[in-house]
Description:
The protein has 9 helices and no strands. The protein is mostly helical.
Amino acid sequence: MKALLLKDFYVLRKQMWVYAIIVLAWGVVPQAWLNLLAVVYGSIIPYSAMAYDQRSRWDKFTRMLPYSDQAAVMSRYVLGWIFILASAAIVMLSQGILSQLSIPSAFFSALPLRILFVALCIGCLLLALNIPLMLRLGAEKARLVSALTTFLVFASAGALSGLADAESTAPVMLALPVLAVLAIIATAVSIPLSLKFYRENR
Length: 202
C-alpha cells in the first residue's frame, strides 16, 4: 500500500501545490465556514487520483502487479484520510498563529475543537460516499458525482458555520457522538462495497 500511496503523491504533486495554497488561504481567514470548508476539501482529493488512474488505465495495470485488492482499495481511503487530517492541521496551525497575533480566530473562539471534529466526520462521510460511486460508475460517468460532492462540501460548510454561530452548545454536544457513529458506520459499509465494485471491474 505504501508504494500505491507514493505513486498517488507523485501523480498529484503538481495539484498538491494548488491544494496547499487553497487550504492555506481558507485556513488563515478568520471565518468559520471557510476554515471548515478547507478541512472537508481534503475528501475530494482521491477523486482526482482515481480519475487519473482510470484515464491512464493504471487501475487495469495494477491487477498485474503484486498488490492485493484490499491494498488497492484501502489506499484510496488512506489517501483521503491523510489529506483530511493535513487540511485540519493546516487550519489549526494557521488559526493558532492568528490567535497568537491577537487577530480574531474562528477555531479559537467559543466553539473550537468541537466544530473541527464535526468537519472531520463530514469529510469521512463524503469520502465514504465518493469512493464506491467512483469505482462503480467510472471516471467519465462519475462527473455528476463530482458535482454532487462539490455541492455537499459547500452545503456542509454552510451547515457547520451555522452550528458555530449557535448560541447553545448543547445540541452540538449531543450531535457529536451521533455524527461520529455515522462516519464509522458509513466507512465500515463503504470499504467492503468498494472492494466488491473493484473486483467486479476486472
